[in-house]
Amino acid sequence: DRPDPPRSLRLSGVSGTSLSLSWDPGFNGGLPQHFLLRAEGPDAPPLPAALVTSGFELTLGGLRPATPYDVTVRARNARGESAPARLRAVTSGTEMAPKP
């Protein structure tokens, strides 16, 4: 069967250009699964593609500072995709410069 949606999608870190996310997997439908992540923000260029991982956490980089993003995570297996888990997150106002 198709997998269940990821559970407990949460923000685990934020910077001016990235959002770190983690989640708990739902039932995999009895088959190996992986996860597709997308982030969309107003007036922000879309990410080049959905990011795919087999783990339960990922950092989305290349984002704009001080911008809200709608993030979706779907589970996928050989039978199809789950409904999305959704989260709205905002990148911080500025990217921290490294100390010399």
UniProtKB/TrEMBL annotation:
Transmembrane segments: none annotated. Residues 80-100 are annotated as: Disordered. PROSITE patterns: FN3 (PS50853). It comes from the Eukaryota. Residues 5-97 form the Fibronectin type-III domain. InterPro entries: FN3_dom, FN3_sf, Ig-like_fold. Pfam families: fn3 (PF00041). This is NPHN protein. The gene is Nphs1.
